[in-house]
Every structure is written in C-alpha cells, then in structure tokens.
Amino acid sequence: MKKLFVLLSTVTALAAAQAQTTTPRVDQRQQRQDQRIEQGVAAGSLTASEAARLEHQQTRISNMESRAKADGDVSRRERAKLHAAQDGASRTIHRKKHNGRQPG
C-alpha cells in the first residue's frame, strides 16, 4: 500500500514539475494534502479505501490545475475553482482522518 502512495505522490510531483509554475500556492497545498494523507495511513487513521479515494481526489485537482495551465495563463476564475476544490479536499481529508475507522 505504501508503494502506491509513493507512486501517486511521485506522479503528482512530476505533473506539477512539467507544468508552468504559475500556481505555487496550489502546488504547495497539494503537497501538504498528500502528506496529510500519507500521515493518516501511517498513523492508522485512514483505511486503504479512504486513502485511495483521497488520492484520487488529489489527482482530479492536479488534472484541473493542468487544464487551467494549458493555455499558459491561470485566470482568476480558474484559480478560485482550484482553491475551492482544495478547500473541499481538505475538509474531506479531515473528516476521513477523524471518523474513527481503523484499517483492518
């Protein structure tokens, strides 16, 4: 399972490195959220299926970011959508980490 998370984190980092870095705040937040998911798995507060869903959500946000950067400019509206998606993801990570489920 840990290999999966390392692989997904690496893919996310590579995708961010290939794109033009016009959204450093979004990139940093993606990294922090990936770390929070990994910490939840390591601490046992996230099940494998919860972690997989959260990682999939992070991948969707990364794809949104790539589409926003595709034309070489990230508009205010695109940036606002990215931040809203990250806000939702952050809330979901918190809920999943604190829902009392244990891997098993």
What this model shows, in words?
- By secondary structure, the protein is an all-alpha fold.
- It has one domain (2-97).
- The chain is 78% helix and 0% strand.
- The protein is built from four helices and no strands.
- The protein has helices spanning 2-18, 24-43, 48-69, 76-97.
- Helix 2 packs antiparallel against helix 3 (48-69).
- Mean pLDDT is 86; it is low at 17-21.
Furnish the topology, listing elements before pairings.
Layout: H1 2-18, H2 24-43, H3 48-69, H4 76-97
Helix pairs in contact: 1-2, 1-3, 2-3, 2-4, 3-4
Instruction: Give the integer mean of the pLDDT values.
Output: 86
The amount of helix comes to over 70%
Q: What's the total count of β strands?
A: 0
Largest sheet properties: none
Q: What is the total domain count?
A: 1
User: Helix and strand string, N-terminal first?
Assistant: HHHH
Query: What gross morphology would you assign?
Result: elongated
Ranges where pLDDT stays below 50 over 5 or more residues in a row are: 17-21
N-to-C span? 13 Å
Structural class designation: mainly alpha
- What's the alpha carbon Rg, rounded to whole Å? 14 Å
Given the structure, what is the number of helices?
Answer: 4
Beta-strand content estimate: under 5%
Keywords:
104 residues; 0% strand; mainly alpha
Summarize the structure.
With 104 residues, the protein is an all-alpha fold. Helices cover 78% and strands 0% of the residues.
